Amino acid sequence: MSDSAYEDRLQAWVGRELVTRRPGQDPVNVPMIRHWVEAMEDDNPVYLDEDAARATGRDGVVAPASMLQAWTMRGYAASVSPDAERTGSDELTDLLAEGGYTSVVATDSEFEFHRELVPGDHVSVEETLEAISPEKKTALGPGRFISTVKTYRDASGEIVATQRWRMLRFRPAAKPEPAPKAPRPRPAINHDNEFWFAAAREHRLVIQRCADCKSLRHPPGPCCPQCGSFGWDTVESAGEGHVYTYVVNHHPRHPAFDYPLVVAVIELTEGTRLIANMTGVEPGDVEIGMPVVLDWIDPDPDLSLPVFRPAVAEES
Amino acid sequence: MSVLPGAAAIAGIGATEFSKDSGRSELRLACEAVLAAVTDAGLQPSDVDGMVTFTADTNSEIHIARNLGIGELSFFSRVGYGGGAACGTVQQAAMAVATGVADVVVCYRAFNERSGTRYGLGQADRPVDVSADRAAYSWMTPFGLATPAQWVAMFARRYMHEYGATSEDFGRIAVVDRAHAATNPAAWFHDRPITLADHQASRWIAEPLRLLDCCQESDGGQALVVVSAERARDLPHPPALIWGAAQGSGNDQHMMTSYYRSEITGIPEMGLVGRQLYAQSRLTPADVQAAILYDHFTPLVLPQLEELGFCAKGEAKDFVADGNLELGGRLPVNTHGGQLGEAYIHGMNGIAEGVRLVRGTSVNQPGDVHNVLVTAGTGVPTSGLILGASG
Predict the structure, then answer these.
(1) Enclosing H/E stretch for A261
(2) Any idea where the ChsH2 C-terminal OB-fold domain is (chain A) (predicted)?
(3) pTM across the whole model
């Protein structure tokens, strides 16, 4: 099913009734009001004291406005009963789950009260879907905001209150990825070595060459130890060589690396050596003299380093 | 010929206890060690007029001088390159005494290397700057090559490949050290000898190095008092005369990572030190009856034996396996237990043991010791001494 087909099925619910008019189990009554105001520590006398209520111009005690939803709640047992009648709300929940929106969090609730409830009122509620938003990125994961309107009526059908109810149905983010590896220890870049790391970022392995006597040197430096020249350029290595020596590191462990970690001194066919990691070979299979070829790794966005893998033997 | 040989002597040695958690400041450790050495020499702090330590030491001369009431200093100097500095401090002191710029020079090193900053954790997260020293790490740490054990392991692997040495050959160094530590009450590993099987069963740290190839990390301080040979004869202990004192930095020298030389199985900077020591002292390896060889990691003890002329290239493994490093052997080594067994005080505790060997007071005193060769850190610009009894 295409995304647009799913969207159409969702939007078809706009304006439809999710819960048909359903009366509360008990009429508005003083015992429930008493429990509520005690729990809420609301000592306004108009909820329990007839005289005080009349003194405010009312006919008698009234129910707290904030209790409105309480009069229509069915209780936990009824809400989870398998025998409960399926409602449009249940169908919409299934449709949202089909789209991966399996989790829910309430976001807004706005009430408009038409009159105060008094003991003896029998309240009912019905709920209609007002809007389903396009998918939004949220901190909880991608999701859709679902807006409904609940209408509360008395026994005669007169509206006593409306409630605009908004919730986010979302696709919970997948288990967090394992934390990205710590960055590798940074090379200290200065005037004498920056050319090498800049070339590495272009995946070019260069070797410093004396501009005068043409001897190669690594690690680089500002002056030729053979002839004393400060002039230099570079040549690009063919990227072939062999393992001159190597270690397999176990302890201590730096969070940038996987262990056991092979570090080798590679002797290039050009004659210079350099330190580099090995790839494509088990630590136990590395050998001094093993022919290797150059590859590259980009462990961090601004760091590329040469790595060497065993050369594939030419077929005879 | 040089004025240096025999001009000065080590007349006093002093140390703190060696521990894993001193519970005191590095400055206090330094003060305790210096005071103990001065006292051992039969001198007063006010007699000291020169001080030498490592660039790596956090305890500046002025702090120690002020705390101990040493007063005026006419000579102060520092030696770089980590543990390679150890014997170099004594060379500085001996030259100062021989040239008359100072009369009583204290060499010292004190740190909380176990409870404070541990070198073994490596340099991976060393702060970045643009200096050449820091830039040198750019060729190592981004690849995960960041600890002294790893740096040494690179040499060890090549040495094994070229000479057929094995992990057991490295292990024999650890066994000898720990045997000597076992009878040294000052050693951290007093009464705890190991077998070669223990060594082989210990976990990998950086192959081919196992845990028991690696020296300890220790808290402690060690100091030495250097005076003229003439003055030393009037002090309480038999003088340990400085017949040779040398530094060496080799061709294409790097800190711990001189992997770019045509061959890397030797320690050319130690060869350079050895040649100077023998030339200064007019001695040969045959004249040396005991040695303190820097043992931060066992593999680099083998090429030291070769560079210093005790055996031929590649033959150290056989020289060791034949028992030559044990008490009663040709060249008893690290009779205090070394840095694997006694403590890691950056080689300075080894110089103190060299003095005890000359005095005849080592807890593992071999018979008939006239001359002792002491080395400093390997893999770095280094130094060495030949200490001996009077004439």
Answers:
(1) strand A261-268
(2) 235-296
(3) 0.76
Quote the ipTM score.
Answer: 0.96
State the CATH number of the domain containing residue A142: 3.10.129.10
| Interatomic CA distance for residues A74 and B308, integer angstroms | 94
Q: Are B158 and A187 a contacting pair at CB < 8 A?
A: no
> pLDDT tier at A316 (50, 70, 90 boundaries)?
very low
Of A188, A250, A263, the CB nearest to B143: A263
What CATH number is given to the structural domain containing A216? 2.40.50.840
Active site residue B294: yes
B344 annotated active-site: yes
If one looks up domain B8-116+215-385 in CATH, what number appears? 3.40.47.10
Helix (H) or strand (E) holding A22: strand A17-23
Interchain CB distance below 8 Å, A185 and B141 = yes
Q: Residues A226, A158: one domain?
A: no
Regarding whether A141 and A22 lie in a shared domain, the answer is yes
Give mean pLDDT, residues A127-146. 91
Q: Three-state DSSP class for B337?
A: coil
Nearest to B161 among A187, A263, A288 (CB): A288
Would you list the domain boundaries of chain B? 8-116+215-385
Q: To probe the interface with A, which of B207, B251, B261 has the most A CB atoms within 10 Å?
A: B207
Total tally of structural domains belonging to chain A = 2
For residues A300 and B224, the model is more confident at: B224
Decide if A101 is inside a domain.
Answer: yes
Report the residue of B138, B162, B261 to disrupt the A interface, i.e. the one with the largest count of A CBs within 10 Å: B138
